[in-house]
Amino acid sequence: MTEPIRVLVFGTVGTGKTSCCNTLAGKKKEVSNQARGVTFTSQVYEAFEANGKSIVLTDTAGLNESELGTVPANEAFMQLTKLLKNSNEGYNLLIQVFRASRLTILEKNNYDLFVKGIANLKIPVILVVTGCEGFFPMSQWREENREYVESSDLIYKDIICTCFAKAEQRTELEPIYARLRDESRQAVLAAIIKYATETPVKFYDSTGQDYAKSFADMLKQVWEFCRERFKWYLLLAAFEGVFVSFLVDVLEFSEEDARKIVEFFNIN
Ligand SMILES: Nc1nc2c(ncn2[C@@H]2O[C@H](COP(=O)(O)OP(=O)(O)OP(=O)(O)O)[C@@H](O)[C@H]2O)c(=O)[nH]1
Ligand SMILES: [Mg+2]
């Protein structure tokens, strides 16, 4: 069997990441219905087939600044660490999700964190814009906004204009939404297959002797980025003990590796 295409889906809170993943995979995970985010931990979807390829999606928690975010910085950072630990096989593609009407500095911060900070510009990235149901055709959003996106230093292999909403209140509109979701699904799947790398690209080396160091180096870079851009000030010295326990008990690092990670990472 050939290896699946692994895709990491990221973006700010409530942009439609889970709605997008559910539609692509034909699965149902809970979506948020308020400003508060609903996905606190990353979720890996079961592999599914599309156009003869096997695809595995990883949906992530939306990341915002700590004051605006849904979880305190310590918790958010632990979740991010967990995602990275579980990403040891690497990814073939990144998908950023924006909402058409909401393009803020946070979108840029998320791009920089994932595309530059974590993936070191080594993994191709596409943009999925949700909320394009008000444009006809949906791709009109791209015609109107492409230059603005590019001038914000957000560089994508492709920009796909989509709608993943369901007409829950006005059910008479649901057939129209269903058609838009299907069109969006086809377009995103085609882009995944077109732009994914042949083999997955890793964030760190999880096989060699230097696993703990390799992981810690990446984590340190990620932490510095989050502190600066997301203003995650809350990690205090007291967090160190909690973090070691988390590395051992939840992420199943050995005590020795956990101590090495915290040491290399130099939390203080
Ligand atoms: N109008 C519109 N609403 C959408 C679209 N896609 C998703 N939504 C709605 O946006 C809300 C948030 O969707 P989610 O899929 O939970 O967003 P998320 O990015 O996973 O949110 P977090 O996990 O909390 O970060 C839900 O009410 C969705 O129905 C879209 O294309 N258009
Ligand atoms: Mg979600």
Features:
268 residues, alpha/beta, Rossmann fold, 2 domains, 8 helices, binds magnesium ion
List the topology elements.
Blueprint: E1 5-10, H1 17-25, E2 43-44, E3 48-50, E4 53-59, H2 73-85, E5 93-99, H3 105-118, E6 125-130, H4 140-151, E7 159-161, H5 174-195, H6 211-229, H7 239-250, H8 255-265
Parallel strand pairs: 1-4, 1-5, 5-6, 6-7
Antiparallel strand pairs: 2-4, 3-4
Helix pairs in contact: 2-6, 3-6, 6-8, 7-8
The structure holds guanosine-5'-triphosphate (GTP) and magnesium ion (MG).
Guanosine-5'-triphosphate (GTP) binds near residues 11 and 13.
Q: How would you describe this structure to a colleague?
A:
This protein has 268 residues and is α/β, with parallel strands linked by helices. It folds into 2 domains: 5-195, 3-Layer(aba) Sandwich (Rossmann fold), CATH 3.40.50; 211-265, no CATH class. The protein is built from 8 helices and 7 strands; from the N terminus they run βαβββαβαβαβαααα. Strands 1, 2, 3, 4, 5, 6 and 7 form a 7-stranded mixed beta sheet that branches. Helix 2 runs antiparallel to helix 6 (211-229) and helix 3 (105-118) packs antiparallel against helix 6. It binds guanosine-5'-triphosphate and magnesium ion (MG). Residues 11, 13-19, 31-33, 37-39, 62, 130-131, 133, 162-165 line the site of guanosine-5'-triphosphate.
